[in-house]
Amino acid sequence: MIFFKIRKLLLFSILSVVLVSCNQNRNDEYNCKYDDNSGGIVNIKKDHIFWMKGKTKYKITKETSERILAERDIRPVSVWKLTFYKKTLKIKLTRFDLRKKRDDYTNILSCEKLN
């Protein structure tokens, strides 16, 4: 009985290490476009999402099996919030105006995985 518990614990530990190490080397690339076909390459790494050839950087704040949440803080003006939906390959981009205390811009982009 103890042998099986130890075996389960060892298997769980190995699986956890493998999953964590895979996530650390993430380098996913997507071509994301607005409705008017403008847009660009989005690169998702371990802790950040890069956009516009790396000029715009969003810090990943939370990740679930369904989505990645990221923010770009441009104080005192605004906070940009990016939500990447993994299953539908869509991005919701929202700007929260700190002076008006409300969202003043929201748009949806469609993405295509490149790698």
How does the SSE layout of this entry go?
Layout: H1 2-24, E1 28-33, E2 39-44, E3 48-51, E4 56-63, E5 67-74, E6 78-85, E7 90-97, E8 102-113
Antiparallel strand pairs: 1-2, 1-8, 2-3, 3-4, 4-5, 5-6, 6-7, 7-8
Description:
This protein is of the alpha+beta class and 115 residues long. It has one domain (27-113). It has one helix spanning 2-24; strands at 28-33, 39-44, 48-51, 56-63, 67-74, 78-85, 90-97, 102-113. An eight-stranded antiparallel barrel has the order 1-2-3-4-5-6-7-8. It is globular, with a radius of gyration of 18 Å. The termini are far apart.
Portion of residues within helices: 10-25%
Question: First CA to last CA: what distance?
Answer: 45 Å
Question: Shape from CA axes?
Answer: globular
Q: Which whole number gives the mean pLDDT? A: 84
Ranges where pLDDT stays below 50 over 5 or more residues in a row are 8-23
- Count of domain modules: 1
Name some characteristics of this structure.
globular; 115 residues; alpha+beta; eight-stranded antiparallel β-barrel
Summarize the structure.
The chain has 115 residues and is α+β, with helices and mostly antiparallel strands. The protein has one helix and eight strands.
